[in-house]
Amino acid sequence: MRFTFLEDFLALVFPQTCCGCKKSLFRFEKLICKHCIANLPVTSYHLMAENNDLTVKLMGLTDVRKAISLLRFTKGGLSKKLLHHLKYKNKPELGVELGKIYGYRLKESGFNIDWDQIIPVPLHPIKLKRRGYNQSERFAAGLSLALNVPVNHELKRIRYTETQTRKSRLQRWENVSEVFTLVENHTIMNKKILLVDDVMTTGATLAACANVLLQSSVSSVDLAVIAAGR
User: Fold this and answer.
1) Of 40, 136, 168, 171, whose CB has the highest number of CB atoms within 10 Å?
2) Same-domain status, 8 and 109
3) Which pLDDT value is given to residue 160?
4) Are residues 71 and 93 both part of a single domain?
5) What is the pLDDT of residue 166?
């Protein structure tokens, strides 16, 4: 009873709010309220995973099998608000929650048998120290819990790069084409890999990572992100 009273007191003084709408959360809700979950701009890319807007965007950059996204990214929309909280508001647990949401959705469609390992796009150590966590790794952790597929952390970023925000598609590719490497190649040999990131814009970063994996004798590489724009 003592702990319940303390929890109720803290909830009253420091109420937990939804990362989407900022309304107070009920005790049974975590990070995102039921209303926002019901209104997430979810995609159906996993139902056409080998032929959709994302795979078209990656043509000429890499040779992956499938590319999927949980959400559609729109400026000012719910997906942008959630990504902002995940990356800049110290909400690493939000990445895990979104990973679980997508993981269970994918499991219902039989995707849990499609992959042997999940690999997050890595941050450079400087940026990792500054932020305190890798949002893509947190997304991977949530997917892993839902799909029962282990996470592999052998992919590393070896060169610090400038922000990609205002770069063209070609500039983004040149910025990341040689910044990733594998620490231990043998851990992914002949494995079906799911490479994950928080967001896909031009696809340059994901393609650069995928190419490193594809050069290391993996069986296949698929891509999954929290949100992607057209």
Assistant:
1) 136
2) no
3) 79
4) yes
5) 59
